[in-house]
Amino acid sequence: MGNTTLKKIGVLTSGGDAPGMNAAIRAVVRTAHYYKIECVGIRGGYTGLIEGNFTKMGPRSVSNIINLGGTILRSARSAEFRTPEGRKKAYEQCVAHNIDALVCIGGDGTFTGALKFSEEFGIKVLGVPGTIDNDIFGTDFTIGYDTALNTAIDAIDKIRDTATSHSRVFFVEVMGRDAGFIALNSGIATGALDILIPEQKDSLEQMFETFEKAQKRGKTSSIVIVAEGEQLASTYDLAKKTKEKFPDYDIRVSILGHIQRGGAPSCADRVLASRLGFGAVIGLMKGLTNVMAGIRSNDLVFTPIEDAITKHNEINQDLLQISEVLAM
Amino acid sequence: MGNTTLKKIGVLTSGGDAPGMNAAIRAVVRTAHYYKIECVGIRGGYTGLIEGNFTKMGPRSVSNIINLGGTILRSARSAEFRTPEGRKKAYEQCVAHNIDALVCIGGDGTFTGALKFSEEFGIKVLGVPGTIDNDIFGTDFTIGYDTALNTAIDAIDKIRDTATSHSRVFFVEVMGRDAGFIALNSGIATGALDILIPEQKDSLEQMFETFEKAQKRGKTSSIVIVAEGEQLASTYDLAKKTKEKFPDYDIRVSILGHIQRGGAPSCADRVLASRLGFGAVIGLMKGLTNVMAGIRSNDLVFTPIEDAITKHNEINQDLLQISEVLAM
Amino acid sequence: MGNTTLKKIGVLTSGGDAPGMNAAIRAVVRTAHYYKIECVGIRGGYTGLIEGNFTKMGPRSVSNIINLGGTILRSARSAEFRTPEGRKKAYEQCVAHNIDALVCIGGDGTFTGALKFSEEFGIKVLGVPGTIDNDIFGTDFTIGYDTALNTAIDAIDKIRDTATSHSRVFFVEVMGRDAGFIALNSGIATGALDILIPEQKDSLEQMFETFEKAQKRGKTSSIVIVAEGEQLASTYDLAKKTKEKFPDYDIRVSILGHIQRGGAPSCADRVLASRLGFGAVIGLMKGLTNVMAGIRSNDLVFTPIEDAITKHNEINQDLLQISEVLAM
Amino acid sequence: MGNTTLKKIGVLTSGGDAPGMNAAIRAVVRTAHYYKIECVGIRGGYTGLIEGNFTKMGPRSVSNIINLGGTILRSARSAEFRTPEGRKKAYEQCVAHNIDALVCIGGDGTFTGALKFSEEFGIKVLGVPGTIDNDIFGTDFTIGYDTALNTAIDAIDKIRDTATSHSRVFFVEVMGRDAGFIALNSGIATGALDILIPEQKDSLEQMFETFEKAQKRGKTSSIVIVAEGEQLASTYDLAKKTKEKFPDYDIRVSILGHIQRGGAPSCADRVLASRLGFGAVIGLMKGLTNVMAGIRSNDLVFTPIEDAITKHNEINQDLLQISEVLAM
User: What sequence ranges are listed for the domain Phosphofructokinase (chains A, B, C, D) (predicted)?
Assistant: First the structure.
């Protein structure tokens, strides 16, 4: 593969961290090295880009990180990068350090910034989708999503032990501010009685009806999974209203929270991150810019960042039906 | 070992469930079978005892449960058993079913009820300490405590991944309404900056000072472990007050909650539960009553239930010192 | 969805067990119930079919199994079912019990038997791919594969701890008699130095060269992943020959073995199994027979069993390249 | 606490690695720092001591290692240190680097070397028991043992899934060359049918009898745990002889191997390692030498290394009885 123009790239992680980001960094660094492209790590996301917080990276700088959660380059949300002045400074750092292109690992906030930056200053950018929410168009899965699912079901399985032992009803809130992917899949995987997600219009009446049916079938304990971004009510309010309706229920709430962001990445996430990190460098070598690397139907594809941040992966309708049929 | 008088025993789990309770039930049932004593399982704790919700148990009824969290006999807190009328009904059930003695697996609430019941009606009772809180006198460890610790540190390790990646401060609340054992040990095991437990008088000033020292040493992310029963303030209020003092900190709260009660028991908990369940039957065969089986310095010992519920295991002062010295 | 003809189905698991089989059984049973189709579980695979080892199953018979490894219906390889007499007896059992159709969960051995049985006796059969090896055509993933991958990398991560601490070379054998999917993916996910799979022609010279390059780069410990079905040599012989070539190496062998078949299924496997079990009943209701339910590009598809057992999923060439580029 | 004489200590890990060694290193380094004692890490065990492979360590050099398996200082077995010349070189390195005392983390091989070295050259040595085998006198538990137990039962639970599904008999070999602690405890914790350990005289007849009894009780699958150091026969031979005796059994062997040495340490191991690392420095400050730090009945104690390597913790007879009574 010829690479006449790309001399030096920067890699950064930005936004909420996700398990597998380190595997992606490793893949970017080692692929760059393999093709004799210099690589610098940018610490602390766009803030580090603005401040020139750079570190030269070689194959050994990413040894023994493929299995670590978090991101060795750290992450941050940068208010300054949202201003033209901030991006100008970032550009000057790129120039000063001879950086030709950036690999930006993160979610839609990360990509929005990258796109703007690239359009303004002509620095090539290539996005890698790293977010547990799986809410990025242009890839079947985002890095960290599979691990977050496994973390969630591991926690919900534990909660089910105690729910069953005490004949309790648990409302478990999982992450997903705009998307119900984690809720829907973890709910199916743990046999949740009901699953509430932002993509679907839910009503208390429907939920209460589901409870009543379950009661009639002799179910003595239940788990309801609620996506963080559920519109109907907060998880605590859902629990409160259910208690008002069914005063006999012994109801508890559990907010899984930040454990969903951490932990050793699953095999699928490590392989995905390795493929996308590799693909990002390949894409830049081919001269691509303003695109995101993704895997669709097991193939590496590149999607305009514009599409990645404006279009949406639809919730699979089959899954919604299955969640209803199987929860008894 | 001679057993001339004991013909039939009942076993129940009561109070908050704890991983390893199933292993204890299994040990009671199989030991009873081995010594040709009949055994009935009582479903739903003291409520089941009052209602005669009994099931005959043999060696095969407890196959493949040693590794399961929760309790196959279910648990509950029974208001009725706290009344003389409730206990009278329970006694009548014992008489009707020829039950000579009870093995009561649970915490201090469970033992308080058992003691009263035994004193009033002469039914022999033998307690087995099953609670994640480790707050029972007369045993080095309670069933479920070791598993809860491992669940807690697994979650805190995950939180640390994201704390480190984002330079955040996390307040993590672990279980322990009256006791700081989980907080202190999980805090040491995860390198927590500070650990707040009910056994120790804490102050905001001390905590803030600890933060300041850490900051000076260049620490950019920190975890503070708070026991549920901490007296100083609620975990959310601690976070709020810290934010007021240090407005620059990016502070998050995570309440680990009920995941700490579930999950496959650890090896130590399975062995402990097996020893205590075995020991409970042996104790009853020896004619003991109103005592609790425990393991102290690796030996099976029996402690009067009276002591088990009134005396307290002290927090190890060495551990408090170690937590300070090692957290930098 | 109309279902005028299907009255009663049987479900069985056969061949090597795989995590998620229980989730598939649950989905078959509950979907059948939802559509008012009777369902019997057949215990012990085709042997149970021949012997009429049947059990009526309803929604509650599959409660709390979605998270369990193994198969509650047990599995076996049946020599008798490979004979015309055996299949005749199986047919008579179906007739005697009014079974219209079978859902057969397993791998290619299972499907071969199902196809023959269906062709001979006209009993409808629908296959569900359950095998950790992922070597079935007609589905992107087989049930159990994702869990086996996670089990494998969890073990290899542990081995790497000790490999790194002692500067050792480990040859780790993973499952996959005919297919290198587990080896290739777990190898990439753990940063293996080399990966030997049956789909690729390997040579000792190449492997030794890889070792030499690694040594030059200063790598002091290495892991080589070997698929069970590797043609070059047995894992022990590979280790032996490597020792002869590099007498200074401290070389160990680890055969991961049967741990790869067990354990709580991953989220992906539970969801996959739920979709395929649901899909199997839907397929039978539509009148399909001699097909296998699969998921391709996130859609439910049906593939002739004939194709499922004769065609093969190809190893992704990108992955082979990535494994080389990233292993340094 | 006064410390007038101790200026600089070295810390090393030697022999087989064990989870929690990093937590012990961290505790040594931070406690030394707290008491203003300089600390150097010695890389690669006694080999590193001989070669002067030293690295200055401060509080930050041990950040984020408390949860990592393996040992960041690496380990090795050193033939040279067993010679007087080797130890002489090691002494010269200590003199050249002004090292007053050594903390030696490892098992009995490590301690034997330390004792000899100290006796010959007067360098103070303090041992910390780090080995998964738990075969060191003077402490209730060694660092790594609890984690190894949890790793073992996690693997055996998985094997049981497949054993049960296929009605198989599994011989599972766990670590323990001279001691049966891992075998006995993991066997009880997983409901093994039989447990073979070097401390007990076993016979094939007894084992076959156990199989026959189990068969009569209707048990269709079984697990036998064999300690690595079992004297009766190798695990493969035990399986072979059992097959000869019971040709109908479907028998498999699984050697758990090196996975037992790795992985994130359990909470108990991290706390134990923290206490012992802390205690080691305290001991040296008190002027102790040729002793090993241990925890007995929850108290820090120091035992002459001479005793630690010659005396033995006895297998608890209760556990042997319990393993028989509960395995049905």
Answer: 8-281
- Residue C299 has a CB neighbour count (10 Å cut-off) of 11
Inside any domain, residue B325: no
Same domain? For B138 and B12 the reply is: yes
Count: domains in chain A = 2
| Chain A residues with CB-CB distance to C167 below 8 A | none
**Residue pair D172/D223 in contact by the 8 Å Cβ criterion:** yes
Q: Are residues D138 and D277 in the same domain?
A: yes
Instruction: Pick left, alpha or beta for residue D15 (phi over 0 → left; psi -120 to 50 → alpha; otherwise beta).
Output: left
- Are A150 and A137 found together in one domain? no
For the stretch D231-270, pLDDT in tens is 999 999 999 999 999 999 999 999 999 999 999 999 999 9
CATH number at residue C167: 3.40.50.460
Cβ pair D41, D13 in contact under 8 A: no
* pLDDT tens figures, C261-316: 999 999 999 999 999 999 999 999 999 999 999 999 999 999 999 999 999 888 99
Q: What is the DSSP letter of B148?
A: H
Q: And the tokens for A281?
A: 């460098």
Whether the Cβ atoms of residue C273 and residue C20 lie closer than 8 Å to each other: yes
Mark yes or no for CB contact C258/D255 under 8 Å: no
Local structure of B107: helix, strand or coil: coil
Residues B38, B93 share a domain = yes
Residues B15 and B130 in one domain: yes
Phi-psi region of B293 (alpha: psi -120 to 50; beta: other; left: phi over 0): beta
Is the confidence metric ipTM above 0.90 for this complex? yes
Q: pLDDT tens digit string along A163-199?
A: 999 999 999 999 999 999 999 999 999 999 999 999 9
D17, D100, D133, D140: which is the annotated catalytic residue? Answer: D133
On whether residue D172 sits in a domain, the answer given is: yes
- B55 falls within a domain: yes
Beta strand residue intervals within D193-298, DSSP E: 194-196, 222-227, 251-255, 291-296
Q: Do residues C135 and C271 both lie within one domain?
A: yes
Q: A271 and C319: CB-CB below 8 Å?
A: yes
Whether residues B328 and D217 touch (CB distance < 8 A) is answered with no
pLDDT of C1 higher than 50: no
Q: Give the max Cα distance, chain D.
A: 72
Chain D residues close to C254, C-beta within 8 Å: 257-259
Of A13, A70, A162, the CB nearest to B258: A162
3-state secondary structure chain A: CCCCCCCEEEEEECCCCCCCHHHHHHHHHHHHHHCCCEEEEECCHHHHHHHCCEEECCHHHHCCCCCCCCCCCCCCCCCHHHCHHHHHHHHHHHHHCCCCEEEEEECHHHHHHHHHHHHHHCCEEEEEEECCCCCCCCCCCCECHHHHHHHHHHHHHHHHHHHHHHCCEEEEEECCCCCCHHHHHHHHHCCCCEEECCCCCCCHHHHHHHHHHHHHCCCCCEEEEEECCCCCCCHHHHHHHHHHHCCCCCEEEEECHHHHHCCCCCHHHHHHHHHHHHHHHHHHHCCCCCEEEEEECCEEEEEEHHHHHHCCCCCCHHHHHHHHHHCC
pLDDT above 90 (res B328): no
Instruction: Tell me: do D67 and D132 sit in the same domain.
Output: yes
Q: Give the CATH number of the domain where residue B90 resides.
A: 3.40.50.450
- 3-state secondary structure (DSSP) of residue B143: strand
Q: What is the pLDDT of residue C218?
A: 85
**B9 forms bridges with which residues in the sheet?**
B39, B101
- Full domain range(s) for residue B124: 8-144+265-310
